[in-house]
Amino acid sequence: MAVQELEREGASLVTVEEVIKLLELDGWRQINDDKTCRQFKHDSKTGTVTLSGQLELVVPAGVLRTLLRHVQLDEGT
């Protein structure tokens, strides 16, 4: 799911599960086994992304924008 699609659908309705799928499509992989706080790492991008919450939890729009900017998915995807 592209970032523009998320914005069109209303970013306030994106769940943790959908964000995880988006991260995995971009090559991020989960590096821990904790179900409430997940950490992701990318082979070619710097940093670690932490995403907390149950899978059905809706991610607030501001948090989503910050996360997408951090993982370099805010433009051109």
**In CATH, what is the class?**
Alpha Beta
Unreliable residue stretches: none
User: How does CATH name the architecture?
Assistant: 2-Layer Sandwich
Largest sheet: 3 strands, antiparallel
Q: Span between N and C termini?
A: 9 Å
What do we call the CATH topology? Answer: Metal Transport, Frataxin, Chain A
Which range does the strand content fall in?
A: 15-25%
CATH homology superfamily name: Hypothetical protein
> Structurally, how many domains make up the residues?
1
Summed over residues and divided by their number, the pLDDT gives a mean of 82
SSE class: alpha+beta
How many extended strands? Answer: 3
Strand order of the largest sheet: 1-2-3
Order of helices and strands: HHEEEH
List the SSEs and their pairings.
Layout: H1 3-9, H2 16-25, E1 29-30, E2 37-41, E3 48-52, H3 61-70
Antiparallel strand pairs: 1-2, 2-3
